[in-house]
User: What shape does this take?
Amino acid sequence: MKNDFSQGAVWKNIVAQSVPLLFAQLVQLLYNVVDRIYIGHLPDIGSIALTGIGLAFPLTSLVAAFTNLFGQGGTPLFSIARGAKNEKKAEHILGQSFMLLTVSSVLICAVCLIFRKPVLYLFGASDTSYFYADSYLKIYLLGTTFSMLSTGLNGFINAQGFPRTGMLTIFIGAAMNLILDPIFIFVFGLGIEGAALATVISQAVSAAWAVSFFFGKKTLYHIRKSNLIPDGATIGKITSLGLSGFIVQGTNCMVQVACTSTLREFGGDLYVGIMTVLNSVRDIFTLPIQSLTGGSQPVISYNYGAKKFTRVRRGIFFMACVGIIYTVAAWLLVLAFPHVIVSVFTSDKEMIEAASHALGIYFFGFCFMALQFTGQSSFTALGCTKRAIFFSLLRKAIIVVPLTLILPRVGMGADGVFTAEPISNVLGGLACFVTMYFSLYRRLPKEDE
Assistant: This one.
């Protein structure tokens, strides 16, 4: 019964999926955040090394974008097929997603390694910061396949009702990363390269665990050779539904490029490093809401496939209420302790003061992110591809990027870059949620079939 999301209280199903997912994603976040914490506290070079890692963010976001395209694109289709009791179709979708993740990861790794130098300078690298960015990236990219497989396949583990196994997929690798980071960085004296090497090894372990699950006895669905042959129709459906998540991360890449290049012009390397800190803090505080919406998606998709529309509405309502309460609490915490939060990532006094000021601007109106996540996840879970794609583009590409480029040039300086984020949260979040409510939530059939 634990694999049947049409039974029991909807909120309990969502919590059962979200809590293990929260721990899994928390551990996943440690892959990168722990690297930044150790590197930010390196004697003498901590702040500039942190700037170097920040310059690599757009390419790591690009990897995440393709992971979302084929991983998150396949998971809702997989869940809908499960809800409709079409086991053969569900297994076929799994195989196609695995094939797409593997092939694309190899291509992405090769292209990024070849063109990393001109790309890093395009992102705003100086001659000093390029050294650290390149040292990290040339090793980190070697783990692209491991990263995409462990993250992309984990959604299929959770969608079967095995969130604890999904949590272990990430936990095993992250625990290794926590152990290897200080050894490689400080004991072996490898510095920023040691952080990247520890991450790659850890991702390899996570990927091995995830792939082995689908060849074992516990899984309800297996990766089979017959399902690895490219199927144009299925690939089209996966990429169509995954476009939303792809655009979210793709536009994150675009925003990061706009931010780093603009901050390099208006604030120099110090402010590029500050953006690295702000991104890290944002990643931490958005994690619970991402876990909530991520845990809700398979439950909502399953009940939609099973035509349990009352349960679909309850799931969306619960996701919105909990999300709003959490983001308000997180916003208040950031406002109360900015210096404490920033000092986790750096011991540089100049950076702590400037980053604390920027943090207050950047997190203003953070509660509106709950509306964006709820609307976006609801559209994705129910297969509303066009609306999901539009609102992914609206907040980042249409609002954030232009404001990031314009506001600093109309007298706001570096603060203009940080101000673009809260404006997009309010406008994008409200537009996405209101549209979802009137075009989807209220139009669901009143009676279950």
Notes: DSSP finds 16 helices and no strands in the chain. The mean pLDDT is 91.
